[in-house]
Amino acid sequence: MARDPFVVVGGGVAAARAVEAIRDIDTDTPVVLVAREQRLPYERPPLSKEVLLGLEPVEAAFVRPRQWYDERGVQLRLGVAVDRLDPAQRTVVLSDGEQLAWGAVLLATGSGARKLKVPGSRLDGVFYLRTMTDAAALRERLVEGSRVVVVGAGWIGLEVSAAARRRGAEVTVVEPQEAPLLGTLGERIGTWFADVHRSHGVTFRFGEGVASLEGTGDTVTTVCTTSGERLPADTVVIGVGAFPNTRLAEQAGLAVDDGVLVDESLRASAEGVYAAGDVARWYHPTLGTRVRVEHWANAYDGGYAAGRSMAGAAVRYDAMPFFYSDQYDLGLEYAGYIPPGTDTELVLRGDLAADEFLAFWVARHDGGTRVLAGMQVHVWDQLDAVQALVRSGVRVDLDRLADPAVALGAVGAERLSGIPPLKSRYAVHRLSWAPRGRP
Ligand SMILES: Cc1cc2nc3c(=O)[nH]c(=O)nc-3n(C[C@H](O)[C@H](O)[C@H](O)COP(=O)(O)OP(=O)(O)OC[C@H]3O[C@@H](n4cnc5c(N)ncnc54)[C@H](O)[C@@H]3O)c2cc1C
Predict the structure, then answer these.
(1) How far is the CA of 351 from the centre of ligand 1 (A)?
(2) Alpha carbon distance 252, 107 (integer Å)
(3) What CATH number does residue 291 fall under?
(4) What is the mean pLDDT of residues 75-84?
(5) Are 104 and 124 members of one domain?
(6) One domain for residues 249 and 357
(7) Is the pLDDT at 165 greater than 70, yes or no?
(8) Which pLDDT score is estimated for 348?
(9) 370, part of any domain
């Protein structure tokens, strides 16, 4: 008897990887991928880097060419959204009115750009950067001498600033906090980031919000800050964070709490329903808590893990949170997890002034100190060792951790009591597309 199809909802990397995993296990059951945008599933990181710089066409971000899906008998329903999910009837209703039955369904609906709600925020020339369409339109605006105001000094804001400077635009960043990325990287590294951007000609307005945007006719001309400053702008790019696209899950009555709640096998609260990628808050079996990660690697690995789980494999998804960023000629990679509210100390190995270093965030625990997260900046061969150190849970000697002459594998002593080592088949991450432009 024919089985009801696997239905995958979403057009990002999590959806594409889920389809791949399903087909690696099950070559018979129909697979339908439903994506709102009229595009093949694509990856977003190049949109704020190679695509904005004009080095790659937007199509370079497709996860797979169309032929790949055809060869695997994956039915693509592009330009159609899933409007309703009914876990009891095991159906979804599409925006064109069609109803599809499913045997298992994946929510890989990702996240959306948080909107800036101030007067004038809908004027022409105001951009968010989430889709290929956004990136293609924004790229046209980043030209020599144009005045770009970036709202928010998070990852997107900083990458856009770097691309805009590279294309000769004048860039001012407005950020309510006193440094970029304070919440993630802390003051010292945040300040270093600001200095890197200043050295490339970016101007910052820290401690400032946006009160309103003003324009001539329908077109933005000025960003008015909360302290009353008026910044001339031809283009405004807003990067003030993202929110998980949980609407479908909420309407279906699934458990949702800043993300669709799923277990370590990525199963949601209703039978047959799964979630992965930006939208999912999953129970991480080795961290012992639920986490939601808005980064490419988690969508890449988590999408694949969810596809395996849907196809009947035993899955325990325990990838270590990982992200990377490229700005100017700097590349960085970060791995680890710092529970909210944890007091950490920063330990540096290498030379901040030379833009080439490792940073570690360490926490005291039962009289010892262990590494919760680490980042390599313009250093390319240490991430496996950083991840191993984080996973091992060993007590570290801070002087040895800071000393470039000591191998990372030799900075630890015995494992701290009560902390299980984080063993993971996902732990050492390999970037799939990033080798472009990376060593
Ligand atoms: C510009 C940009 C740059 C980034 N750079 C980096 C980086 O350098 N490093 C890094 O680690 N991470 C980066 N990220 C984050 C990374 O891209 C995301 O974590 C990743 O895209 C998440 O993938 P996803 O498949 O879960 O969701 P998404 O990529 O958000 O895809 C979700 C898809 O689902 C579709 N969808 C939503 N609802 C429905 C529905 N009801 N029916 C049908 N389709 C629906 C959406 O249209 C969308 O196409 C970047 C993100 C952006 C926007």
Answers:
(1) 34
(2) 12
(3) 3.50.50.60
(4) 98
(5) no
(6) no
(7) yes
(8) 96
(9) yes
Domain shared by 106 and 250, yes or no:
yes
Average pLDDT on 325-340 reads 91
Q: What is the pLDDT of residues 129-145, one digit of tens each?
A: 999 999 999 999 999 99
Alpha-carbon distances of 306 from 53, 108, 138, 284, 422, rounded to whole Å = 33, 10, 33, 14, 20
Residue carrying the six token digits 């458990």: 255
The answer to the question of residue 319 being in a domain is no
Whether the pLDDT of residue 388 is over 90: the answer is no
Contact of 249 with 10, CB cutoff 8 Å = no
306-328: average pLDDT: 93
> Closest residue (by CA) to atom 53 of ligand 1?
130
pLDDT band at 413 (very low <50, low <70, confident <90, very high): low
**Ligand 1 pocket, residue 393 CB under 6 Å:** no
d(CA 149, CA 166): 15
Asked if the structure places residue 228 within a domain, the reply is yes
> In this structure, are 232 and 377 located in the same domain?
no
- Contact assessment for residue 236 and residue 265, using Cβ atoms and an 8 Å cutoff: no
Centre a 10 Å sphere on the Cβ of residue 341 and count the other Cβ atoms it contains: 5
Number of domains in the chain: 3
* C-beta 18 within 6 A of ligand 1: no
Q: What pLDDT does residue 219 have?
A: 98
DSSP structural state of residue 287: T
Say yes or no: 220 and 119 in one domain: yes
Q: Considering the entire predicted model, what is its pTM? A: 0.94
**Residue 366: pLDDT above 80?**
no
Nearest ligand 1 atom to the CA of 47 is 1
Residues 104 and 167 grouped into a single domain: no
Q: Are residues 227 and 159 in the same domain?
A: yes
Range of the domain at 269: 6-44+61-112+243-310
Dihedral pair phi/psi, residue 196, rounded to 5°: -60, -45
Determine the 3-state secondary structure of 316 from DSSP.
Answer: coil
Residues 235 and 247 in one domain: no
pLDDT band at 408 (very low <50, low <70, confident <90, very high): confident
Q: Please indicate whether residue 46, judged by its CB atom, sits closer than 6 Å to ligand 1.
A: no
